[in-house]
Amino acid sequence: MAGLSRILTIADMREAAQRRLPRVIFDFVDGAAEDELGKARNTDALDAVQVTPNYLVDIRERSQKTDLFGQTWDRPVGIAPTGMSNLLWPDADLCLARAAMAANVPYILSTAATTSIEDIGRATEGRFWFQLYAQSDRETNLDLVRRAREADAQALVLTVDAPWPGKRERDLRNGFSVPFRMTPKTLLDGALHPRWALRFLAGPAPRLATIAAYAPEGATAGTLAAFMVARISQTLTWDDLAWLRDAWDKPFILKGLQSAADAARAKALGVNGIIVSNHGGRQLDAAPAPVSVLPAIRAAAGPEMALILDSGIRRGSHIGRALALGADFTLVGRATLYGVAAAGRPGAARSLDILRDELDRFQAQTGCPDIGDIGKLEAVLPAAA
Ligand SMILES: Cc1cc2nc3c(=O)[nH]c(=O)nc-3n(C[C@H](O)[C@H](O)[C@H](O)COP(=O)(O)O)c2cc1C
């Protein structure tokens, strides 16, 4: 897309995505649960964190290189797992994975992705993490873990904050469904967004490419989606973590924990990392902003536990603020989805670069040439009024 360099912020990228996408698709990405207060709180809490700068520091040489799970990444922000991304742009999952590879940051493939574990494994030569939505039967879970292992995934991420679907009212009002169905309303919406419609119609219909292997033969995109929703486990408990952990010998990460007690339990079970997240406000509208529970989770999980924060990050300074409050790493969901929706892989790369440049300024202005210095800054999140 011409003019990507004129996009200066993630807010600009969101607007570019909104212009290109039909409303029903934009709302699927941008929306959240119920009154969307949790989504707003995520970013508001990050905005509220105050960081005291240190001056008279030589800041000429700055680096964002961060070690996590035995690897050195070039920036402390990766791409969170997202389902159904190919609605935004054909091969959106591959665009995101390749943008992450080029930036040397982690990319997490969702169970609900529209590209299979095997295709992402081949395209990235194993430079991806796999996110598991636990299915109701143990055999399928073990098979998904086996496929992730055979595709050389670097880490397994078990999402725990979606035991039941969030009530996403924009989707309900728009008649959004998985698979995406053309109704008279969406046809008109598509006709009003020809840049999206031409690409969408030229590509294959997005389908749950990984889950397809378990569906009855001849399943359509529609029956496949219903199949997956019906099989997401509602009975997964802490007891199941032991056998899942045993089936995987690389880093094992829980995504969506928000309580200190749960973090302590995860530590006792040998979990290697926690993604402190509320799913970008898409599940429990009442959930706390992850940044507000981060210090308690750090205290409970101890200094060795890798703590990764997501939900609400729209600025490089949000990454800086999360690191200052004790996170080791961060992820973004919507920031790179807006990028891919606006302009495919270069758009996703642009979103990552905007965040990198803003974080670089944050480092320069706080006297933290090395990214590890940020954790030593004085930072406070004032109690909400
Ligand atoms: C469109 C969309 C789809 C998502 N799908 C998944 C998913 O399949 N699995 C998962 O663990 N999280 C999923 N998430 C949550 C993200 O992984 C991440 O936690 C969230 O987007 C972070 O908040 P942010 O969008 O404010 O950065 C999804 C989020 C969005 C916006």
Structure report:
The mean pLDDT is 94. The protein has one domain: Aldolase class I (TIM Barrel). Helix 1 runs antiparallel to helix 15 (334-366). By secondary structure, the protein is of the alpha/beta class. Strands 4-11-10-9-8-7-6-5 form an 8-stranded parallel β-sheet. The termini are far apart. The chain is built from 15 helices and 12 strands. Helices cover 44% and strands 11% of the residues. It binds flavin mononucleotide. Flavin mononucleotide binds at residues 28-29, 42, 80-83, 110, 112, 131, 159, 255, 277, 279-280, 282, 310-313, 332-335, 337.
List the helices and strands and how they pair.
Elements: H1 10-20, H2 23-30, H3 37-48, E1 50-52, E2 66-68, E3 71-73, E4 77-79, H4 92-103, E5 108-109, H5 117-124, E6 129-132, H6 138-150, E7 156-159, H7 169-174, H8 184-191, H9 194-202, H10 221-231, H11 238-246, E8 252-257, H12 260-268, E9 273-276, H13 290-301, E10 306-309, H14 316-324, E11 329-332, H15 334-366, E12 378-380
Parallel strand pairs: 4-11, 5-6, 6-7, 7-8, 8-9, 9-10, 10-11
Antiparallel strand pairs: 1-12, 2-3
Helix pairs in contact: 1-15, 4-15, 12-13, 14-15
Bound molecules: flavin mononucleotide (FMN).
